[in-house]
Design brief:
The structure is a single chain. The chain is α/β, with parallel strands linked by helices and 472 residues long. An eight-stranded mixed sheet has the order 5-6-8-7-9-12-10-11, sandwiched between helices. The N and C termini lie far apart (58 Å). It is found in: Secreted.
Amino acid sequence: MKLCSTFLLAALPCVSSALQLPLLDNFEISSDPFQNILGDLRSYIKSEDYKVTHYKAQDPSVWPLDLNQYEGYKILRFPINEDTKYALNELRASYAQWEANIEYIDLKVPEEDMSLLRSLDYEVIIEDLAQAVYETFPSLESQSFDPTEHDDFNVASDIFFKEYRPLKTIYAWLDMMKETFPDLVEIEWLGQTFEGRDMKALHLSAPTGLNPEKKTIVLTAGVHAREWISTSTVLWVMSQLLSNYGVKKAETEFLNKLDFLVVPVFNPDGYEYSWTDDRLWRKNRQETYVPRCFGIDIDHSFDYHWTRSEDYACGEFYSGETQFEAIEAENLNHYINITKGQHEIYGYLDFHSYTQKILYPYAYSCDELPRDIENLLELAYGLSKTIRLKSGKYYEVLPACKDRGVDILPGLGAGSSLDYMYHNRAHWAFQFKLRDTGSHGFLLPSKFIIPVGKEMYSAVKYFCEFILDPER
């Protein structure tokens, strides 16, 4: 692959290669006690919890997705500093970008290009991309899971959250929530996508007679198609709120005093495409001015300080040619406008992956401070502390502009839902970037769904408690 600048090959220092652990397959068990220890270690590593099934070409368990498209690719992390930031900004034009912030940039690079990058400092964070993609898909047995076949909601939940789920199963799950909790759940229709799929939201609330002046909290996930963990996390949060109502004091108070509008799959077309065609797809699927370039980055399509994030319509961060061009962004804006007289939007939580961060406004620029910055920071650090106490995981608190590296990559913070909701609607607004910090990236294995769900549920509870009693 031709690089966009010859400057890249000469201007940057040293290469650091990733640490490789030795394989244990060549060890044999013997009478030597040390060898027996090695054998036990080998058995442990290959136990059921750690065993990985390696994919085969055209494996039916992930049909119709073609895994061959990821063969030979790695994910590399390039540290950013003053000497390298401009060169790396050019490099991202040649390779698909996973993550970019003020500290590093993660890029998808074919193995044959590794020699071209020998003068760059980088770390290999995913060695085998095809295998990493394969490991996020559900088993053959669980692909046919239908939540409506289970009468017990808790039993269905235990099964549902063992794997990531396709769109049709998620929508069946939403219907099941409505049937199981008819007094607490309404399914809201936000509009249709470019490909004609419904955008669905769940409105969670106890009967309004208990508190007609309720404040509304909006939760969104799945804005970027490949970030499956965000959708599963929000579904977990909903299931816990509902199943604990009338059982636990906190959840009962939340639903009595607050409304929740939850959009678990904000980008239905993109999400479906990530299951059938490209697991790493980011944007929606609407047409652009370039015939074979599909998709607009929804999180660059909102109207607050909108600007074109990149000129190339095939680019992953393409914002369209005007604000609200992404149909999904306009659908949310329209829905909020026609329902704004019902309840005040008081809080907004937007779930993404990855890097374990809690971001606060503004994303478009670091030159503008949000209103009530001290109170916003108090809440953000409280959320981070709550997660740390729950799971031991550290979530860094940052302004969204710093995370997006707008001083290095101009335009990547413009038109975000975070800024739109905070400036126009919500008193409190945050974006969570979920696990992990790069070992799996967007391809977090399904065994982490429940652990991530639990730590985010603790954060949502803290958020609700703060809103109900900021002086506590």
